[in-house]
Protein: Ribonuclease Z
Amino acid sequence: MKFEVTILGSNSALPTTKRFPTAQVLNVLERFFLIDCGEGTQIQMKRFRLPMSRINHVLISHMHGDHIFGLIGLLSTFALQGRKSDLHIYGHSKLEKLIRFQLELLETKLDYEIFYHTIFGTNIQTLFEDDSLIVQSFPLKHGAMPCAGFLFKEKERLRTLKSDMLSFYNIPIKNRHGIKQGDDFICDDGEVIPNDKLTKDAPKVRSYAFCTDTAYLPKIVPIIAGVDLLYHEATFLKTEEKRAKKTYHSTAEQAGKIAAEAKVKKLLIGHFSARFDDLKEHLEEAKNIFPNTALAEDGKIFSVELDRD
Amino acid sequence: MKFEVTILGSNSALPTTKRFPTAQVLNVLERFFLIDCGEGTQIQMKRFRLPMSRINHVLISHMHGDHIFGLIGLLSTFALQGRKSDLHIYGHSKLEKLIRFQLELLETKLDYEIFYHTIFGTNIQTLFEDDSLIVQSFPLKHGAMPCAGFLFKEKERLRTLKSDMLSFYNIPIKNRHGIKQGDDFICDDGEVIPNDKLTKDAPKVRSYAFCTDTAYLPKIVPIIAGVDLLYHEATFLKTEEKRAKKTYHSTAEQAGKIAAEAKVKKLLIGHFSARFDDLKEHLEEAKNIFPNTALAEDGKIFSVELDRD
Structure:
């Protein structure tokens, strides 16, 4: 019952040998979502042993090179590996143009189909939904460049049956779905077994929000409120707040503020400028505002466990 | 007086964590030529401490992704670094289309100019020439895909002056160029000092040939005859000769044969299939035919020293 994110790249525009440009894989119950795809993403997926062929959904926040230049290589590798399963790509309408142009010019033959889903970027938009998960995008603030944040949220689960009590009361299978939904059970002799004797609370829904690239943007707080994990960019330190504002990026302190205001459980900061070799100051600065902060460095895995309170 | 090639990527289409796709930097007398530019090239240049900003010439052998997908990232990085100096790109006419489309769609602002030079691919073609170096392309055989090999050759140098003899005979500066070209010197008293007393032989010209991707193609032998270093692809082992032929690649043995027939000084083999973790067999197979063979693995540097015989 995994819900975990693996960081493939944590740097901003200029990659370093230690930190590749932005890319992450979120594993939700063995469904794998690739979020952004900077140059070298496919190499990082091999390095960190992620099952490349099981990526069925790729979400791209915006059309800056450090978030997309690994995509054409990944698609070509899928083709060489004989991929057959559909691939869904979510991003700005230009992304479809970019990929189609490249595949056509290079005469790349795909045995799989790509479905392009346009992120319009003006409102909250549902990108993907099934019985157990919903994925939405919401607008960030990155100057003239439309940029989307992403919110992954499990859906409410039904209550969990207590298997020992089911067999004790010999409850027929046909009644079980109702009991999961909260029904009591009435025995043949009329005795009513209250639901809380037969079930326990469902695990809490888990959630992840991904916010990069963006200037400090308090209006995202209600959207990401209470998430278990928040990835927020922290390109700069507080000493460069002006530069952050000018380039529509955030400081580590601002990332901490957003996390604190949104009352998230844990903050991951990333998208570091290549000028910083050591990231201790970023971590300290964010922790001063929001103590439960971690550096989202390449290769790190952050999990959210199932929790029934 | 360097003449050395640094291997940035030695793998074929699918990269591994150890071996990136094809890219090399040739340093000829502190002029830096980038040859092919697979995904991750800019990261490898940082890893192996090559001066990225001094790349003024990029040569692309053919339009397969594993030889080009790093280029747009490199051009963008140049832009971010504030590059001003011209960049010359040599390749198939589609390469210009690909780059122009991407730069335009992504609205990448360059403060430097790109000059595109089309490789026509049917004949030997001079791509670059100055006082001391000539760079030519020649056609390889890679199925329907036009593919160019590259030959880098220093030009003949003038003879080297013996400085002690120049001062001994007190030879005026105005005479020195003629003496370098082979003139004798006539002293004021009429004594003739023969040229070989004043000069020694110039160092021999150095040369490098780059041949990938290609099927076994003996007709390149006269073109690359006698080069100091030959890089030749060896995607497969002899046991897969049929597959090599079908996919227009070479085996390690065939690379060895070309080296032997062309009487080169040293053979470097590369463009290995990702299926091979260990490359001992490739090396052995090529060495059986041409003993002075080395594996062109990522990060290795191969130099040609100045030699006066």
Remarks:
- The interface with chain B takes residues 13-17, 20, 39-40, 42-43, 46-47, 63-66, 69-70, 72-73, 76-77, 80-81, 94, 97-98, 101-102, 105-106, 108 of chain A (CB under 8 Å).
- Residues 93-105 of chain A form the longest helix (13 residues).
- Chain A has two domains: 3-157+203-303, 160-200.
- The mean pLDDT of chain A is 96.
